[in-house]
Structures are given as C-alpha cells and as structure tokens.
C-alpha cells in the first residue's frame, strides 16, 4: 500500500465524516430501513414472512422437533430390542417405527437442518440482506413442513411406511405393500426433496451473486463453501430419488400401474437400488459436508488462528462432492452384480477416504498450532473427532467387498453409520447451535449445562452404538424386530438400550438449556466468541436487513482482517428491499437487485403442491387439477412481482448510487489474495 | 388459532376412521361372524334368486391388507386353476356382472364353503373363516365392488389383466342366468 | 483332489498373515508403550471385540475356508484401523494438553510464523502419504481375499442345493439325476464336511439375503435374478444363519441352520429324507393323521405318502427329524410344536399360517402324529 493510496483513503474518510455520514443520517437511514424491512404480524403475517432468518430459524426448529420425534421412535425401538422375544411393539409397529425413524432423520432432520443453518447464516456470512429468492425460500419451508406433517399424521393414522427408509422393491411395490403406506412415503420424499432443491438453488445463487464486495471466491468462509458444495450435490442427487419415488408411486397407482420395477414386464428391481443409492450415498455427504463447515468455523474461532490449509479444505470438500457420486454400489455388494464392477467401487470408496483424511489432518494442524479457547462448541468438535474418525475407519472396512459380505446389513453397519452421522453431523451441529445460538437469539447458552449435555450425549452415544459393532460381527442383522434367546445378543442389547436412555437425557438437558437460556441466558453481544466471519459484525439477533451498510471484505477472516478504515457499500436504497449483486469470481459490484417483500403466495403455492402430491396418492386426476391450480397461483405469483430489477451495467452503479442518496459509492480496496 | 386447531383435530379424527380401517394389519383376527351363514340352511340351492336379507357387511372389503391376503389365497388355493385371474375358464368369470349364486359377500362365502355343482369344490374345514372372508373380499374386488383405495394394485408378474384397483365397478345383476343354463364361460 | 489343494494353500497363508499381524501388533505396542492409559483403552477395545468371537452365529468363529479368510482380513483391517484411530486420538489429546489456553479476547493469529506453518504442512503431507499407503495396502489385501474366496466356484464336484426364499422361510431342495430321489425340506440344510457346496439361490417373492456368518458372507436373493453361492464347511457342527435383507414382518425370524456332518452321516441323512413319511403306528397317531388330512393343514403343507400336497408352506414329511420349527426360531419340542400349531400368529405375527382351534384331544393326536414324522 503506497502513500498515495493512504492519503486518498484518509481524504475519503474525512469526506464521509464531514459531509455525508453523520450519526444522525445513520440513525435516520436505520429507521427507514427498519420500516422497509418490516416483519409482517398476525396469522397471515406469519405465513407471509420471507425473511431468510425467520425462515431459517423455522426450518431449524422444525427439524429439531422431527429430530426429537425420530429420537423417541428410536428409544421405543431400543426398548423392544432390550430382551429377546420382547413384545413391546411387535413387528408391524416396529417396522413402521424404524422406517419412520430412518426417513425422519435423513429427510426431515439432517438435510433440512443443515440447509436451515445455511439459509440463516449464508446471507449473513457473505454480507447480503436476504437470500436471492425470498418467496421461493418461504415456499421451500412450507413444502418441507407439509411433507413432515404428512409422514407423522400417517404414522398416527397407522399409515406409517413400513418398508424401510430405502424402500426396496418389490417389498415396497404394489404386490407386497398393500394400502397407502408406501405411497405416503414416496410422496413425502418428493415433497421434502422439492424443499431441499429450493434451498440448494437459494444458497448457490446467494453465494455466487450476492457476496459483499471484496469477498472473492478464495475469501469465502469455509462454512459457505461447504454449503455451496452441498447445494450442488443436492441438485444432482435429489432428482434421482425423486425420480425413483415417482416411478414407485406410478407403479403402485391405480389406473396407471406402470412396470418400472416389475421384472416380468421388463422392469428391474435392481434399478431401484441404483437410483436410490445414487441419491443415498451422496446424501450422507450432503449431511456431512455442512457439518465439516461447522467444524472449520468452530476450530478457527476457538483455536484463535487462521484455518490451516484453507485451499486444501475447499478442494477436499469439492473432491468429496465429486467422488461421493461414484461410490453408491458399496451398498449393493451382496446383490448379483459382476465382481469386477464391485471392485471398482471398493477402490472409489477407499478413494473418498483421502480427501476426508486431508481435511482431518488440516483440522488437527489448526488445533495443534492454535491456542485453545475451550468452550462447549469446541468440546463438541472434540467429540466429533473421537466418534467420526472411528466411523470413518469402519467405513473403510465396509468398502472392502469381502468384508462387506459379512458386515453388510448387520448391526455393524448400524453402528458405522451412526458413528458417521451422529458423530460426523449431529455433534458438530450441537457445537454449531452452541456457537450460533447467541447470534440467533442474543442470549448465550449455559456453558455448564452444555458440558453436562456433551457428556451425556457422548457417553450415551458410545454405550448405544459401540456394542452394535460387536453385535453385528456376532451375526445380528439390521431391521429385526426381535431375536431368539439362543443367539446370545441380549446383554449387549441391554447395554445399548441403557445408552439410548442416557442419550435421551442428554437431549432433555439440551432442550432445558435452550429454554432456560432463552429466558435467563447471559446477553451475548455482537461477537461473544471473538469469531471471524461477517455475521458477528452485526447485532445479535441481527436486524431484519442484516447490514445497514454492506461491508467491503478485506480478507478471508472478515472481522479479524478488517482495518480501521474499512469501506462500506452505500447507495442502496433504504426505501426498497435492495441488495447488491456482485460478480461470481471476484465479487465486484454489478447491479442493485430488489428483493420481494412479505407475501402469502408462497404459502398458497405450497398448499397446491402439497395437495397435488397428497391427492396423487388417491387419484391420478390430482395431476391435471393440480397443474391447473399451480398455474393459477404461479400466475398471481409472477403478476404480483412488483420488484423491478435495475440492471446497471458494471461501473454505472457509482453514478446511480450518487444520484439516489448522494452517498459516496462503494469503496473497493485492491484485493490481495492471501493464499 | 383455536378454530384452526379444533378443525385440525376434527379432520384428524375423521382420517383415523377412514385410514385405520384400510391400513389395519390383522394378524390375530377375530373372524367375522359367519354363524348366520353357516347356520342357515344352504343345502338347497337357489340359483339366481335375490336375497331378502340385508347384505352382510364384510369389513375386509375396506382393508388393503386383507384384500392383498385374499389375492394371495386366490393364487395359493388354486382358484386360478378354474377361474383364471378372474376371467374364467373352466369356472365362471368373476370380473363381470353376472353372478349365478349371488354377489353379496354372504353368497360368495357360502359358495366357497359349500361348493357348487359343476366343479366348485367345498372348502368347508379347509380354510379358516377369516381367510374365506378375505377371499370373498378379493373376489368382489375383481368386479370393482370394493373401494379402489383398498383394492390390490398390479402384481410383480406378467400383466394378464387390469389391476384390481383399476377395474371399473360392475353393476351386479343377480338374476342373470346364462342363456344356455350351462356353466358360463 | 481339488479341495485338498485348497486346504493346503490355506494352511500356508495364515502363517504369513500371522506374522504380518504380529508385526503390526508389535509396532502398535511399541508406539503405545509410552502411554499406559491408551494401552489400557486398547485392551478394553480388543477385549470387547474378542468377546465377540465366541458367538454361535459369529463372523469371527470360522467354520470353513472362506470365513477363515474373511476373519483374517477382518483382523488385518481391524489392527490397521485401530492403529490409525489411536494415533489420531493421541495427537488430539496431546494438542489438548500442550497448547496454550486462550479466551474470546485473545487476538487471533492471522499471519502465523511461516516456518512453523511449513513444518506443520510437511507433517500433514507425510500423514496423507502414510494414509494413502495404508489404504493401498488394505485395498490390495481386500482384492486378494476377494479372489481367494471365489476359487471354490471352480470346483467340479460341488454339491448343488437349491434354496428358495419365501416370506419368511427357506425352501431347500436337493436335486438328484433321478427325479424321485429329489429331497425337499425347509430351513435346515445338511451338508457334508469338506466338500464345496453350490447353492442355487432364488426368491419367490421379495428380496431376501442368505447369510451364514460362520461359513461365508451373504448373497441377496433377488426375484428373477437366480444366483449361485459357493461355500464349504471344514469343521463339523451346526451353524445358524438368517435372512439379512429386510423382507417384511418376520424378517427377524427367517432363520435357518446348516448341519455340517461327515460324508457318511450326510448320505445316511439324505437317504432317510428320500423315504416317504413314517406310517402312523398307534391309534392316536392314526387319529392325528386323520385330523391333519381333513383340516386346513393340507392346503399348504406336503407330507409325502399322504394326500397332503400343498406347496404353500414348508414340506413336513420329516418334520420330527428337524432341530427347529418356525424357520429356525423355535426348538423342535413337543410344547413348542403345540404352541406353534394352535397360535402361530403369537410366535411369528404376520406369517401366513392361521390360528387353529383344536380340542385338547385332537391337538394331542395331531402332535403325536407330527412327532412321529422322523
């Protein structure tokens, strides 16, 4: 930085202070912004909110409710398995419960909660005022909610799906699953995947087009990178399962009765497995990669140093995203597939260990070289290491075809994927909640309760799932509602049930902590952890418009590397819901973009979508009727689009901004990529 | 909000009544009462004569699982041997509107249990009552007499007929005897 | 003889493996010797795993060539993975104890010492390289084992047995060039020790998976995808297995046993199975037979030598000679049989066998008859 430049900046600063930005104008603009970005009230207002923070929090809360419900089902299943020949549930209920448990955790908890965190945090982290398509964002939430309610209303009405969350045909097909149970499941899958796809589109567009000036691609926080990679994976994976579930419901549907999975008419039951696992395995990474984002953020903040190997971490995430699509056959090693083909998938499944190992070593290096601020979020991340690494290593075992032949579909696999998913996603998630709860609510969660919560979850978790490795090796298959006494599996199962109880206690402590802290928690302030990303630069909870002045980012760690004289973007209208669009690579301002305000149309649209999918369970006429209805609603949607786009060409923005508010244009600093 | 929740609860209850019946999996079932039929004198046959009794309600007609079991039994008990998959061959077709010995559940029950001349064997003592009722429900689904939402869908086999849940309801004509007075085709 | 060769090969190989695993163990112990607590942790871990070796239906209690290879492969994977795990945990714990403490106000290190970064970067690279090598080693061992367990498929004198999966039992058929010598039984597979067995698997309804942990891994029975599966028992004994692919209500109780016996015993057994059913000797048994033949039983079950010829359920011609009833989930005792006949839906809810109301005398006669069907 030369002297000339410095002088210029000083001049600029003086100009700001003397002429334009006085505390009074700031206050006036703030009030105006608050008026513009009002939150609608009342019942109708509740359904017409389009603020990404409100929607994000709703997704997170709803997902946690489903998490709790899924957990209760798991507890009941553990009760049933405590003793051999137990009769707490019986096969019909047990099958419905394990299917609903799996479906809930995968479709209604893990993916939505990660996307919910993304929808809340990504716009704040990249420094924008709302997600790119606020109305569609709201639509995504309602569609997800309808899907979730559909599943649980079904379960209460004894229409709970009972063919497993993987719903293999022909068991889930029309001949062996009479009634509407599987139809409900497949429609629910479609609904939640619509929601997931919407979230993915939101995140990609927001990140690529709405970053604050200066936040070039190599300065994006790791969590945002994780969300982008996840979003791309969702866009490629979810259509596979939507396709599969739609084919299944067409196979089952009256007056349609297609034969996609009927071998006798040229269909193929193995096709289902390919389609399902082509989604199913990337799904695991869709859940895990955002969690690695949490881990990176928490480690950076609490090790008090820059992330070691930022580039490596980003590249490994992207690599995982790609390789994740090439490993699905390791779920099908026992099916009649050619052996050579299976070996290729052994190789690819082992290959995916490498990026994850690189990631792990980078985190370890950051921790090794840092100074630890050992708070609950970091403790949860340590728990993540202890559990996830073991899950990853048992994953290596499962990648081997011969070993897989012994371990596949046993309790060993149950242990493995709970180590990976609870260890790899839920522990970081709890860490993330402890980390960002102050930002969400303005109150800190209790540290003491947090440690109790961690210990209960950690001990309980290992008690439940470690014995399952041994049970699996001892020959206990998955998805059994009971076992005979001769097998000798009873003792370890008792241990597992006790552990489940302990985990349940841990969850209760968490709920208690949240409720208590909401009322009596310590006031958090802007940045209680001394963290580095942009969301910590605004008040807690953030104002509706996020940033009064969109900041100009000067480095990877936006807050840590912020200089005294950092520029901000001015010139965005305070009377319209405007935000800044920037270029994909370097985040140079392109134009101003007006975002939609509160509206009830997304809710109406979600009712139509829900109606079509639920109606299709009962009659194929739901499709034409639903298409007409959605045409009408979409017509209103686009008609009411009062938001005018202002396509400023690059460079014109400065003049225009001056014209409007008389404020100085965005001051961009020469960005130095510090690799 | 209160009104919302009240209506929601009401809808839920209404759904419970509709769905529970359709989705119930009855493993250890109390068999529907067959006394009236079994005790009734059925040895004298009354082909073509309509009944004056109110028709017996066969709860299995709204139960998807029982209908599927009926379909399985239809195969396993070799009903297909004579009736094919409802189209009929040696025995009369079951998917049309013509019923020689009555189309009501109790008639079909009696036909299965008693047997009929020209080849229909008696299954008395060969099948527990509840399985006969499952068969009865399924046989009626072949002519679209049961709820389409409960009737079985296609099976994983070559397509030899429309799935039961896609069959249009036939208007039953009890008194139609085949013109030739022989076993219908 | 082919099988003899296989066995010899087998005896050579474990030595190498034992040396390898001993080496790994030694290295492991050497690395761990510094920390007693970690050694203790490891021994608990290993102890727990070892406790798993002694199950009746365990993958780590090999009874044949293939499962022995699989077991060896498992231990190689286990030791390598355990080592990696312990190293990672050790690094983490060391970091926990040696790094300086900080709080939220501590200034974050944005531009760390480049030399130190370089050092760390080098160790990360070394760690990645080491894990790459370990992964390659594991992959190659895995491929080798995969090839080895498939050598049986080339044996010409394999005994062929047809297995058909039903919801929720296994139909077992021994085919013979003379059709009248075919034997059909259920849920109990007798095999001669030391001879390769070729299973021809097919499913009658949904996907099942044949899993016999003591002798081999598993193979799915996908409808319309007939497959074969080779295994061999080298130790005589009774091995149990069960369905490993979720197949509906009674997936949990779709079990079977494999009785591996000396070839002479096997021949004796199969000859006995070829006979028609035992003729009722006493009046009670005769009455039992009459009850069997005039009630619902005949609709689904076959008893050779009588008019009972149903193909829906298991063949009962030699039911009394079997160790288990209810697809390997109930020991074949008189009491169990009584409970089973009267209320199967209580023992296996959802199966296709109906409940039966026999009077006490009738039931006794029926059981007496069934008990006689050796």
List key phrases describing it.
heterotrimer; A: 675 residues; mainly alpha; two-stranded antiparallel ribbon; 4 strands; 64% helix; disordered C terminus; C: 374 residues; alpha+beta; 5-stranded mixed beta sheet; 9 helices; elongated; disordered N terminus
Task: Give an account of the 3D structure.
The complex is a heterotrimer of chains A (675), B (185) and C (374). Chain A is 64% helix and 2% strand. Chain A has 675 residues and is mostly helical. A two-stranded antiparallel sheet of chain A has the order 1-2. In chain B, α3 packs across α6 (129-141). Chain B has 185 residues and is an all-alpha fold. Chain C is 44% helix and 16% strand. Chain C contains 9 helices and 12 strands. In chain C, the strands form 3 sheets. Chain C has a 5-stranded mixed β-sheet. In chain C, a hairpin with an 8-residue loop joins β2 (169-174) and β3. In chain C, α3 packs antiparallel against α4, α6 (283-294) packs across α9 (360-371) and α7 packs across α9. Chain C starts with a helix and ends with a helix. The chains are: A mainly alpha (675), B mainly alpha (185), C alpha+beta (374). Chains in contact: A-B, A-C, B-C.
Distance from N terminus to C terminus of chain B (CA atoms, Å) equals 62 Å
Question: How many strands, what sense, and barrel or not for the largest sheet of chain C?
Answer: 5 strands, mixed
Oligomeric category: heterotrimer
Q: End-to-end distance of chain C, in Å?
A: 35 Å
């Amino acid at each position: 930085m030369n002297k000339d430049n410095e002088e210029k900046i000083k001049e600029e600063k003086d100009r700001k202070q003397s002429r334009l930005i006085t505390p009074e104008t700031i206050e006036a603009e703030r009030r105006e912004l608050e008026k513009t970005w009002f939150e609608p009230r009342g019942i109708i207002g509740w359904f017409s909110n389009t603020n990404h923070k409100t929607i994000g929090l709703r997704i997170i809360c709803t997902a946690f409710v489903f998490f709790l419900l899924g957990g209760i089902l798991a507890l009941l299943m553990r009760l049933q398995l405590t003793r051999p020949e137990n009769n707490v549930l019986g096969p019909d209920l047990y099958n419905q419960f394990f299917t609903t448990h799996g479906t809930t955790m995968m479709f209604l908890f893990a993916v939505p909660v990660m996307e919910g965190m993304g929808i809340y945090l990504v716009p704040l982290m990249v420094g924008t005022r709302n997600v790119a398509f606020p109305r569609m964002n709201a639509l995504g939430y309602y569609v997800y909610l309808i899907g979730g309610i559909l599943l649980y209303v079904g379960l209460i009405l004894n229409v709970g799906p009972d063919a497993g969350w993987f719903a293999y045909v022909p068991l889930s097909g029309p001949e062996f699953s009479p009634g509407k149970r599987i139809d409900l499941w497949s429609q629910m899958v479609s609904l939640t995947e619509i929601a997931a796809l919407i979230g993915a589109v939101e995140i990609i567009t927001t990140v690529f087009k709405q970053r604050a000036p200066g936040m070039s691609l190599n300065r994006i926080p790791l969590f945002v990178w994780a969300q982008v990679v996840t979003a791309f994976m969702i866009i490629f994976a979810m259509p596979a399962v939507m396709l599969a579930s739609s084919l299944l419901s067409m196979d089952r549907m009256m007056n349609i009765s297609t034969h996609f999975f009927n071998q006798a008419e040229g269909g193929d039951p193995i096709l289902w497995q390919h389609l399902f696992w082509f989604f199913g395995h990337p799904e695991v990474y869709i859940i895990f990669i955002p969690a690695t984002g949490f881990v990176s953020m928490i480690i950076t903040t609490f090790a008090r140093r820059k992330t070691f190997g930022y580039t490596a971490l980003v590249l490994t995430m992207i690599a995982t995203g790609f390789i994740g699509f090439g490993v699905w056959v390791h779920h099908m090693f026992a099916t009649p597939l050619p052996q050579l083909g299976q070996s290729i998938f052994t190789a690819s499944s082992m290959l995916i260990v490498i990026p994850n190992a690189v990631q792990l070593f980078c985190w370890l290096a950051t921790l090794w070289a840092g100074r630890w601020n050992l708070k609950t979020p970091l403790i949860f991340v340590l728990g993540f290491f202890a559990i996830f690494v073991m899950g990853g290593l048992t994953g290596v075992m499962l990648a081997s075809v011969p070993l897989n032949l012994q371990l596949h579909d046993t309790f060993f696999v149950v242990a493995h994927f709970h180590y990976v998913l609870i260890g790899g996603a839920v522990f970081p998630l709890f860490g993330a909640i402890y980390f960002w709860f102050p930002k969400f609510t303005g109150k800190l969660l209790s540290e003491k309760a947090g440690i109790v919560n961690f210990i209960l979850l950690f001990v309980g978790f290992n008690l439940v799932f470690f014995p399952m490795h041994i049970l699996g090796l001892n020959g206990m298959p998955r998805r059994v509602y009971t076992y005979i006494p001769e097998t000798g599996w009873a003792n370890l199962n008792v241990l597992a049930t006790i552990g489940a109880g302990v985990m349940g206690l841990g969850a209760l402590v968490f709920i208690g902590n949240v409720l208590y802290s909401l009322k009596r928690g310590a006031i958090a302030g802007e940045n209680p952890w001394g963290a580095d990303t942009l969301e910590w630069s605004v008040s807690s909870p953030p104002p509706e418009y996020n940033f009064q002045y969109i900041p100009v980012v000067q480095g990877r760690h936006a807050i840590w590397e912020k200089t005294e004289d950092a520029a901000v973007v001015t010139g965005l209208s305070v009377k319209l819901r405007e935000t800044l669009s920037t270029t994909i690579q370097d985040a140079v301002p392109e134009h101003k973009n007006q975002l939609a305000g509160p509206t009830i149309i997304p809710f109406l649209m979600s009712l139509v979508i829900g109606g079509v999918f639920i109606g299709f369970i009962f009659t194929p006429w739901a499709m034409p009727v639903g298409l007409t209805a959605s045409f009408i609603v979409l017509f209103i949607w686009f008609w009411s689009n009062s938001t005018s786009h202002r396509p400023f060409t690059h460079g014109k923005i400065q003049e225009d901004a001056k014209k409007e508010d008389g404020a100085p244009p965005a001051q961009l600093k020469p960005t130095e990529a510090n690799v | 909000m209160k009104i919302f929740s009240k209506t929601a609860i009401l809808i839920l209850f209404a759904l419970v009544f509709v769905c529970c019946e359709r989705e119930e999996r009855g493993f250890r079932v109390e068999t529907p009462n067959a006394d009236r039929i079994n005790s009734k004198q059925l040895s004298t046959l009354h082909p073509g004569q309509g009944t004056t009794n109110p028709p017996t309600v066969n709860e299995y007609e709204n139960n998807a699982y029982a209908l599927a079991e009926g379909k399985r039994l239809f195969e396993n008990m070799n009903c297909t041997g004579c009736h094919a998959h409802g189209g009929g061959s040696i025995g009369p077709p079951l998917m049309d509107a013509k019923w020689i010995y009555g189309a009501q559940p109790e008639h079909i029950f009696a036909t299965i249990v008693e047997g009929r001349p020209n080849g229909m064997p008696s299954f008395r003592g060969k099948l527990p009552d509840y399985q006969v009722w499952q068969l009865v429900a399924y046989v009626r689904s072949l002519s679209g007499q049961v709820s389409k939402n409960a009737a079985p869908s296609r099976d994983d086999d070559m397509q030899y007929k429309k799935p039961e849940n896609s069959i249009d309801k036939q208007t039953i004509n009890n008194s139609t005897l085949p013109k030739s007075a022989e076993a219908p085709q | 003889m082919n099988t003899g060769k296989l066995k010899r090969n087998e005896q050579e190989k474990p030595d190498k493996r034992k040396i390898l695993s001993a080496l790994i163990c030694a290295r492991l112990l050497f690395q761990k010797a510094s920390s007693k607590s970690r050694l203790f942790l490891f021994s608990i871990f290993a102890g727990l795993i070892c406790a798993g070796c002694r199950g009746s239906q365990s993958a780590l209690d090999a009874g044949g060539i293939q499962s022995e290879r699989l077991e060896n492969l498992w231990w190689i994977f286990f030791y390598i993975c355990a080592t990696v795990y312990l190293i990672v945990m050790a690094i983490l714990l060391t970091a926990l104890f040696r790094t300086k403490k900080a709080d939220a106000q501590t200034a974050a290190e944005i531009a760390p010492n480049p030399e130190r970064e370089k050092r760390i970067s080098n160790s990360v690279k070394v760690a990645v390289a080491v894990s790459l090598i370990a992964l390659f080693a594991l992959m190659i061992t895995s491929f080798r084992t995969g090839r080895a367990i498939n050598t049986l498929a080339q044996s010409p004198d394999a005994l062929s047995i047809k297995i058909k999966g039903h919801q929720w039992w296994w139909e077992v058929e021994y085919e013979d060039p003379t059709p009248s010598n075919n034997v059909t039984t259920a849920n109990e597979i007798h095999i001669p020790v030391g001879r390769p067995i070729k299973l021809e698997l097919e499913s009658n309804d949904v996907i099942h998976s044949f899993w016999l942990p003591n002798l081999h891994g598993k193979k799915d029975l996908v409808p319309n995808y007939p497959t074969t599966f080779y295994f061999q028992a080298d130790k005589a004994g009774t091995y149990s297995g069960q369905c490993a692919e979720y197949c509906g209500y009674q997936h949990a109780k779709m079990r079977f046993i494999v009785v591996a016996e000396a070839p002479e015993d096997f021949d004796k057994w199969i000859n006995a199975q070829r006979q028609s059913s035992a003729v009722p000797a006493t009046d009670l048994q005769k009455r039992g037979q009459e009850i069997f033949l005039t009630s619902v039983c005949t609709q689904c079950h076959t008893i050779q030598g009588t008019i009972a010829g149903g193909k829906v359920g298991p063949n009962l011609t030699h039911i009394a000679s079997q160790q288990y009833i209810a697809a390997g989930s109930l020991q074949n005792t008189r009491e169990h049989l009584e409970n089973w006949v009267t209320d199967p839906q209580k023992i296996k809810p959802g199966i296709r066998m109906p409940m039966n109301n026999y009077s006490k005398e009738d039931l006794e006669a029926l059981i007496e008859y069934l008990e006689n069907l050796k």
